[in-house]
Design brief:
Length: 202
């Protein structure tokens, strides 16, 4: 039987408690032990279905690996924390929104440089979403949860067209000075209104 992680034990206790003070105490304990605050960063590769159908799954898997090899050192170089690679997605967080944005720009520049070496069918196209806030990070499970994770996921996976960097208002406001042109954009998705900024890098 799979052993329970620390948060599993908390959650089982939470389930077995009536609504009220005891549940609130357990929730506070979870946030104290697993809570983080920072910039959530989610990258998604575009055109999975089309690329796989035209070029085959092995070709697309090779693009995923090439993307991972490009992205991971940049995240670390910008003091980021890689949470996990999952399929053609990258999940990470940064202590500051400024570092998250600079990592996104560095990644875009690096991906463009890699793409210039190969024909179009071997090019990588990505979208990146960035939010800022409090979330639960389970290091041993290589996963994180919370509203800023969900919003960054919607921006990076669902809303950012190939090559776009989208930041929420909250994340955008956390950057002291953004030396790039930006455009305010508002999205309505899954009943949620997301006010964000599209970042244009040089």
């Amino acid at each position: 039987m799979h052993s329970l992680s620390n948060i599993d034990k908390y959650l089982i206790d939470y389930i077995n408690q009536p609504v009220g003070r005891h549940r609130n105490l357990i929730e506070s304990q979870i946030w104290d032990e697993f809570g983080y605050e920072g910039a959530t960063f989610i990258l998604d590769m575009a055109n999975f279905s089309l690329s796989t159908r035209i070029n085959g799954i092995v070709h697309y898997l090779s693009l995923i690996k090439k993307m991972q090899l490009t992205v991971e050192p940049i995240i670390k170089n910008r003091s980021g924390h890689l949470v996990k690679f999952e399929a053609d997605n990258v999940f990470a967080y940064f202590d500051t929104a400024e570092n998250a944005l600079q990592a996104a720009i560095d990644i875009k520049v690096a991906i463009d440089a890699v793409n210039n070496k190969y024909p179009e069918k071997s090019n990588i196209h990505i979208g990146i979403g960035i939010d800022y806030g409090k979330f639960i990070y389970l290091k041993e499970d290589k996963d994180y949860y919370g509203d800023p994770v969900n919003i960054a996921s919607k921006l990076g996976e669902d809303l950012a067209n190939g090559g776009e960097i989208l930041m929420t208002d909250t994340a955008f406001s956390m950057v002291p000075e953004i030396p790039y042109r930006s455009e305010e954009v508002t999205f309505e998705i899954s009943g949620v209104t997301i006010r964000s900024h599209k970042i244009y890098y040089p």
